[in-house]
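Same chain as my last thread, 173 residues:
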Amino acid sequence: MTVTARIGVVTVSDRVSRGEYEDLSGPAVREYLLAHLLGEVEVVERVVADERDQIAALLVELVDTEGCCLVVTTGGTGPAPRDVTPEATAEVCDRLLPGFGERMRAVSWEKVPSALLSRQVAGLRGSGLILNLPGSPGAIRECLEAVLPAIPHGIALAGGPRLELDAPPKLPH
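reply #2:
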């Protein structure tokens, strides 16, 4: 029996949630993941305003109710007052995985020094992995390329389903 992996993609943006701006980042996450994951994958997409309690509630819903083994957020990771995605993520995670944020910032730093201002975090809620990405489609691709090799193994170690990638992971030496 084939198991369908459910993956949540959350765009965190006041403007997108109000319909004032087209969501480019959520589709960029979805397209990247679908291009690199093998097997049955169902993507559950949501948009939420930059409100900490709403973000936290949505993350809980996606993991606990929707059964997502991976939830990828995009947006709300900068230093602006309304950027609260990392705080909402940390609030709902049982354990944080700081290596994900460290790696994404290191890769982004090679392109733009302002990457040091990014506050992406990742953590586990039960067997579900929650990962914060920046809101730029280019940065999304860079960050996912940097951490994708670790995602399937991390989810499996936490007790979730084993995701398969389209190619063997290329880890840096």
